[in-house]
Design a protein that fits this description.
The protein has 2 domains: about 120 residues, 2-Layer Sandwich (Beta-Lactamase); about 160 residues, TIM Barrel, CATH 3.20.20. It is built from 10 helices and 11 strands. The C terminus is likely disordered. The strands form 2 sheets. It has a 6-stranded mixed beta sheet, with helices on both faces. By secondary structure, it is α/β, with parallel strands linked by helices. A hairpin with a 5-residue loop joins strand 4 and strand 5. Helix 5 runs parallel beside helix 10.
């Protein structure tokens, strides 16, 4: 069957001759974002000698082709270059292996940068190593981000440890809830008040709800939001101290936990209403809460006596 009129039967050329392949490879190397370095195979000083670099390499190091060709890559090393890593590199290359690592190198202007490299031997038709090919990437910014992340994680962990320590020292029974109102933390005093075993409680917002939940085998009743909550949910309304007092009267000994809008300033009034424990703001451990504000609040609360 003949080709439809107007349609071409010409296919893209896939069989490249040697000259075309070399031109293609050269273009790819010249345009590569990774720095590419090729050296001679001599590992002993003063070798190896640089015999090829691409533009990305000169941009990363600041050395022009004329300045780096014939030199040893050791001119990129400096005080913070990992000597133990260089020893492992030499041992691996001398055994004919590939090597990947990261270390600190230095540009022509003395600038420190972290380089990740992959080095492979280039062999001739007899299998002898004749050159080494190194593909390099400047990962300085990535390492800075990783270091900052590690620092932040350490600060978060320290804040959590400080937070738990402060909470456990409180003479006021203190609990924490998650965004769904579930109890996620009890300090020592709260455990004495509410029991050390499995805690089962129900959040209530009205007298009718209190009467319903008291028929169930619960460990505590959570009443609130007593003073309201600072959320975008405009449906939250304060239930007030009267409901706390009513819950205490109806509970007949079942501990009442006051939740919602509890602060240092109003904590005493909640306890005076009969609440056995106070649930501090449920999102204190949220990632968007400034640790300094949280800890400062709890440190003040720790000094509060009721």
């Amino acid at each position: 069957m003949s080709e439809p009129q107007g349609k071409s039967s010409v296919h893209p050329q896939t069989d490249l001759n040697e000259e075309q392949m070399l031109r293609l490879l050269n273009a790819a190397v010249q345009q590569a974002r990774e720095a590419i370095l090729i050296t001679t195979a001599e590992l002993d000083e003063p070798g190896p000698a640089v015999i090829f670099v691409n533009p990305a390499f000169t941009e990363m190091t600041g050395y022009s082709r004329s300045e780096i060709l014939g030199k040893t890559p050791r001119i990129l090393q400096g005080p913070k270059t990992d000597r133990a890593m260089l020893k492992r590199l030499r041992e691996t290359l001398s055994q004919g292996g590939n090597y990947s690592a990261e270390t600190v190198n230095y540009g022509k202007d003395g600038r420190e940068y972290v380089v990740a490299w992959d080095i492979s031997p280039v062999r001739d038709e007899r299998g002898r190593i004749v050159q080494y090919l190194s593909i390099q990437r400047d990962v300085t910014e990535r390492k800075k981000v990783e270091a900052k992340l590690a620092e932040l994680l350490a600060e978060v962990q320290k804040s959590r440890n400080d937070l738990s320590s402060i909470l456990n020292e409180l003479r006021l029974g203190t609990t924490m809830t998650d965004e769904k109102g579930r109890l996620v933390f009890l300090n020592g005093m709260a455990r004495q008040l509410l029991g050390r075993d499995a805690i089962v409680g129900v959040s209530t917002h009205s007298v009718s709800q209190i009467n319903v939940v008291l028929r169930e085998p619960i460990s505590y009743i959570a009443v609130g939001p007593v003073f309201g909550t600072h959320t975008k949910d405009t449906g939250y309304r304060a239930v007030g101290l009267d409901l706390v007092a009513t819950a205490v009267r109806l509970a007949g000994g079942t501990p009442v936990v006051a939740i919602g809008g509890i602060t240092l300033e109003n904590a005493k009034s909640v306890i005076d209403a009969g609440a056995a424990s106070v649930a501090v703001i449920g999102d204190l451990l949220a990632t968007n809460d400034p640790a300094g504000r949280t800890l400062a609040y709890l440190q003040r609360l720790a000094q509060h006596r009721v």
